[in-house]
Write the structure tokens for this entry.
Amino acid sequence: EFLQAEVVFFAGREPKSITLRQILDAKTPEQAATLAYRELPIRYAQRILQIETLPGWQASQELVEVHRLYSENFKDIRLVELNLKELEPFTAVIGTIKGRMKEVIPMLANAMRNLQQTEGYSEAAIVQWLDAFFLSRIGTEMLTSQYMASAKPDVTARRRRVGVVDYACDPVNICEQAARHARKLCKQHYDDSADVEILVESSIASSFEIESRIRFPYVPNYLFYIMVELLKNSARATVEAQQESPGQRRSIVITVGADPSEVAIRVLDQAGGIPFHAADKVWSYMYSTASKAARNFDEQGTPLAGYGVGLPLSRLYARYLGGSLHLQSLPGVGTCAYLYLKRLESEAREELPTRSSVSSCSLV
Ligand code: W6P
């Protein structure tokens, strides 16, 4: 069929990894549309074929549905004419696509949990498959969001914003907001006695900081999401440790550091560390340490307790623009999370799924 041939053709092309500088430079609707029109068909086509690499995918209702949604996206973007003088039809298509993609992440995480049980796929292969899929999903979401922001500028938005990017993002401020949010979630989930102290400190006195605050171009939503996710885990473990040994102070300490090329954030807790046997499960989409009934969902749809998709997704947000996220556990003492982000927009380049992580993935 025509569509399948087009999909195979586009999937065979290389997506271009874009830098934060290019995202910031594509300010006009014409530039953002050109970027999205070039990249989206390639990326959607590769995801369609990525689903087809999974033996047994047609037996999964959710995989069939996600395959259908991506095929619709592909068809819509290929059928719309890119007329830079008349962008309404393009805007309508991007709007439709954005609406369609809302449920993709939970659908896929569920589908893969089921496939692991029925088809016996290995855990590592599933993590690799979902990491590749979701990394691409973050990139296409960035492209569509930036286009919408340029086509329909939000008059109320602050001037330092270009779409979802804030070119003077203040990481210390975001950490403080995330800390307040995490404490609120913690009190809601347990009760008022579950009070965790979260301190935020930073190295702003360095000589190369012209202003008194660290600022860098970044997507504040990503940073907030990552920080809330890390803090939810640290806070939960801290509350449980405090219940076991009342009277002992176990503050969570966030430290923000920066040099001209990187921003680094450390989240230190004193909750006893991650047991060795659970170390890999932290990054798995398959596990939740809490029972289903005990999971309490916050507004972002992520459970306070249990791992679910929050931590692996946080690591992808960090990696997406060239950063990283690592955890180190000191058994019996506590856990340190290290988040590194690129500070220069020319170095903050999209990480895209590699072909080997998608196609040669032996699943069993
Ligand atoms: C813990 C378990 C965990 C997971 C992720 C981040 C921090 C922490 N702390 O005890």
